[in-house]
Amino acid sequence: MEEIVARHRGRPGPLIPILDEVQTELGWLPRWAMIAVARGLDVPVADVYGVASFYSFFRLSPPGRTRVQVCMGTACYVRGSQQILDALERKLGIKAGDTTADRRFSLESVRCVGACSLAPVIVTGEDCHAKMTTAKLDKMLDACDP
Amino acid sequence: MSEVAQEKQDLPAIERCHVLICAGAACVASGAMEVEAAMKSKISALNLEAEVSLFDTGCVGTCDLGPVVIVYPEGTFYVKLKPADAEEIVTEHLLKGRVVQRLLSKDADHVEVPSIFEHPFFAKQKRIALRNLGVINPESIDEYIAVGGYASLGKVLEMTQDEVIKLVLDSGLRGRGGAGFPTGRKWAFAKAVEADQKYVIINGDEGDPGAFMDRSVLEGDPHSVIEGLAIAGYAIGATQGYAYVRAEYPLAIKRLQIAIDQAREYGLLGKGIFGKFDFDLEIRKGAGAFVCGEETALMRSIEGMRGQPRPKPPFPAVSGLWGKPTIINNVETLANVPAIIQNGPFWYSSFGTETSKGTKVFALAGNINNTGLIEVPFGTTLREVVFEIGGGIPNGKEFKAVQAGGPSGGCIPASLLDIPLDYESLQKAGAIVGSGGLIVMDSDTCMVDVARFFLEFTVDESCGQCTPCREGTKRMLEILTKITKGRGTLEDITKLETLAKAITQTSLCQLGITAPNPVLSTLRYFRDEYLAHVVDKTCPAKVCRELITFDILPDKCTGCTICARNCPTHAISGERKQAHVIDQSACIKCGECLVRCKFDAVVKV
């Protein structure tokens, strides 16, 4: 933590790159980490929390082992991504934005991942699943977290 | 510079053929890397390494055909490859010189297209911003230099700043991020301001859903964007640049960083570029806020704050990043700049229309046969794009509308298919060029639901700073949701129009000002659909769940039980080999039965 803050201190606009690196390290931004960043940069904790809560990239709760991101961009939407998100919510028993109790999956609805020609698209970790249908969901979930 | 390029071009051509694998995001997602690995191992197994070179290239544009491979010099264009196909290409084509006919792309009449040069998808295109995609390896600065890269920067440094600005003004280049402001004028404003430090920024925060050209250019030709930015920097007198790129685009960030490192190594970034100019560039990741595509919000984000826009003036060209004069140019705009310098402003302005010069990259997606990335001269008609380049609507469905310009844009109906795609015509039709996303919708799309979808987007992405945008869009969304649930009244439609006017007139930034556009344009062209929801309580496209029911046609149902087995609420019952029925009280209208039925026995009514 201290090392990350130290590396960016003095550079212009350091807060977002620091939070990015902290999140890469921890997987999310716990309260204690935001307090540590605020102390390290000598800024109010409210400033750090304000930034962390503004950007959807920053997570304020721990994610599941596999993040399932359903693209809800326009192209995916007109090709039926809502139906896929609904089916995933039923299958996992959680709403978009939540994590399953066993921490296997967190489900997110995201805005356009820029793979519109493959719509509808789901991203799990670094894998992009193209032309998804509800029929392919079970296999995809099993492959992500056997 | 030209000596370096010359030297590179004079290298003896030792390879018999060049095999290019599209490494755009769509091809990678369809398995391009597995295809490449298979080819590589086969090439080495057959000892062809000395004769054949194999490398990645940027997005070719035919995204629905991926993974694709192009074999030069013939330009043989292989599509939809599996690893086993790749091996066959090596043993047949690369070793024995026989084209593998069955893997070639086909035209609309299912006839094999012999080479990429004759492919109908490319026939109407003019690729300027995309000139190097599918041609060079994005991770090699040598290849970029070999096609004339960085020569424009060298040329510019021999000119005065005013000459450079005049050249860009003469070309008629306008910002490709949405607003279409003349690039040269933006530069001239920033040049005119005296300051100890100025900044130039690449806006790679491509937030419009349905647009992926900036991603593809950054992934496929990062050096052209860097060169364009360095030229902008020289023109206005900036020595520091920032590239603001969405965190959702990891591959773009990676390739841009590789390009920056290579350019530094070659002395094309850093101190004393060509002995004349200091300029450096740093990447800042966007952290997932659509509003950061707005200039003043983007700068606040780089400064490390919440990305909230501020009123203009002062414009960024006068007081921008850290209060210094700053210009922000879109990725596509910058990718055009080196080509304009190289070929001259009047070459560029010879393409396009009177007021919209040059070419524009459009992302074709939605319900269309050929999805992908295209670049056409401004003034090309929507019909040409959708039906000639895009290959029309799949599954025999009818064209209904094109959504142009994302959440700030509008829907263009079938009656306007002959509209020329340029800034003015689209604006008149109630849409915008915007970043160039074109989402094609067929008869299965409900326009009220689409309007609701965009408002939901805006409500999510509103920064919350000004009341008209924060509260106004929320009220509009509530009304639209009410209408899609069949509880709307005629008065609601009037309310929507009143709210839209107020939001447009009083919002702080373009996000709010343009937020009502999707509603206004659908009201303008598809009012009858709104009336059907409100008066008849029906959804003509059969999308809005509260207004439809699912039914099983007894004469078509074979009793295969697949619907019953997949129904999440067990609402379907019936004996094996007997017609099934849906218990409407238990049905949640998820549509799973309709998707699964192989006999078209499930219908929406």
Keywords:
heterodimer; A: 146 residues; alpha+beta; four-stranded mixed β-sheet; 12% strand; elongated; B: 605 residues; alpha/beta; Glutaredoxin; Rossmann fold; Ubiquitin-like (UB roll); five-stranded mixed β-sheet; 25 helices; 15% strand
Describe this structure in words.
The complex is a heterodimer of chains A (146) and B (605). By secondary structure, chain A is of the alpha+beta class. The model of chain A has no long low-confidence stretch (mean pLDDT 93). Helix content of chain B is 40%, strand content 15%. In chain B, strand 10 and strand 11 form a beta hairpin. In chain B, helix 8 runs antiparallel to helix 9 and helix 19 packs antiparallel against helix 20. The longest helix of chain B has 18 residues. Chain B is globular, with a radius of gyration of 26 Å. Chains A and B meet through helix 2, helix 4, helix 5, helix 6 and strand 4 of A and helix 2, strand 8, strand 10, strand 14 and helix 18 of B.
**Main β-sheet of chain B, in a few words?**
5 strands, mixed
Major sheet details of chain A: 4 strands, mixed
The tally of structural domains of chain B comes to 5
Task: Identify the strand order in the major beta sheet of chain A.
Answer: 2-1-3-4
The level 1 CATH classification of the largest domain in chain B is Alpha Beta
* Strand proportion of chain A: 5-15%
Count of runs of 4 or more consecutive helical residues of chain B: 25
Please give the count of helices of chain A.
7
Q: Helicity level of chain A, as a percent range?
A: 40-55%
Helical content class of chain B: 25-40%
The dominant shape of chain A is elongated
Strand content of chain B: 15-25%
Q: Which residue ranges of chain A are poorly predicted, with pLDDT under 50 across at least 5 consecutive positions?
A: none
CATH fold-level label of the largest domain in chain B: Rossmann fold
CATH homology superfamily of the largest domain in chain B: NADH-ubiquinone oxidoreductase 51kDa subunit
Rg result of chain A: 18 Å
The CATH architecture classification of the largest domain in chain B is 3-Layer(aba) Sandwich
**Count of distinct strands of chain A:** 4
Distance between the termini of chain A: 33 Å
Name the largest protein-protein interface in this structure: A-B, 45 and 60 residues
